[in-house]
# Entry
Amino acid sequence: MKLLRHAASTKSPDIDDDLRNAIISTHDLVGRHAATLEDEQKFFKAYQELTRKLAPVTAETLQASMQRLPPLSSLLQLRGNFMTRMSGMTWGRFIHAVLFVVVLIMAALALGHQTIGSAALARHKALSDDITKLADDRVKLQAAMFDKQALSDRDRSEPGSPAARALANAVRQAGDELVVKADQKKQLESERDGIPPTLARWEQRPCNTWLLKAWLCLDSGNGNGGNVRNGNGNGNGTTSAAEVLDSARTTLDRLNRIVLPLLFGLLGSYSHLLRNISLEIRAQQFAPHSSLHHIARLSLGALAGIASTWLLTPQQVGLSSSLPIWTLAFVAGYGTELVFAFMDRIILAFKA
# Structure
């Protein structure tokens, strides 16, 4: 009867009168408990023809495609096999939507955490380069000032001459520039020295959550809450700035190569899954009992996200080389065929 109502309310193929009457009459007989074996045989013959005309829409897909959330009271009335009864309800796609939001939040948090560490390391490198350049400039200025001072000392015969005054001014300007550059160098060094403690706290932040500790803190052994020394150390349990920087780079590399590709691959796979579910529900073709297929698709998407960072580059799939690598992981998770087609090409190359 649901299929008949669907056929009457949509642009479905015309249903013959004999087919329609056979189903309606059987429905009436069942309601009066008067159906016979012959009636049942006629019904299944008519039902088979009806499902053939309306395929891939079936009574099960119509039920699974209902745009409503089952009432919570129905959960309290479940008896017997809980999971079997739950499978007949329309909770699956709503759970998928909730899990998608959870994965989206996790990806956003991981990306925000990665951005902080990446920006701090990039700033530390830029400051180190600027300090090195200032040190080179100071050496050159000191050499030039010594040369001018030597010329000024040799030119004592005419201390008031224009040449002597020019040399004295040049020596004075060089000294002023040295003072300015020394102040700039001191400020940059102060800012640079403040970055390792920040990186130490950044690296330890996920370790305060038990759920993330085993995932993001495999080799994070600082544990000193930012107690960082700048020298080689004296064995008092503190961590040198070089050790903090090296550990932060390792953590950032792990985020870029494992955590973010996995999350963005899963996010891309979830986007593909929810898009297909939405299209199937709109066409009233959403198949029930498809959880195993969904789990397999999500697992392959997460795997494709990680594998894409090993096998592909953004240029190979027509993306800009300036895009981060997890962009490719999202694309690979959305279309896992991209990674598996590339893997098939590798296998064929080995066979050749």
Summary: DSSP finds 14 helices and two strands in the chain. The longest helix spans residues 92-154.
